[in-house]
Amino acid sequence: MKRTRLSIPVYIIIGLAAIGLISQLFTNTTNFFSNLFISLGIGLAIFAVFYFVFLRKRATSNEMKKYKQAVKQSKAKYDHTQPRKNPVSAGKTQQSIQPRKKRNKRATHLRVIEGNKAKRKDRASF
Description:
This protein has helices at about 1-25, 30-60, 60-80.
């Protein structure tokens, strides 16, 4: 019951706003579009201020920087594009291809995780 009482005035306000927008669109088109662009510009400016002041500071934490660095290193390590192999035609003889072992010339990308190194586990000695 309470919801229907509240929704009726909301529908009336939305209907009157729609009638006003349509009448302004047909009677004063240039003013309508200028007001529309000004409203969009103000809304965009408010959103930009809110985003750059509040949301950006929260997103750049130290853990996020470490995560992005780890993702970058992982992509650099594992993102190798393999060349296409040309199919050998039936008339050509295929040479014996001996598999070669590829050496990784780059250093491995391993990170040391800081931990509590002073604390040792108590193990039972047999």
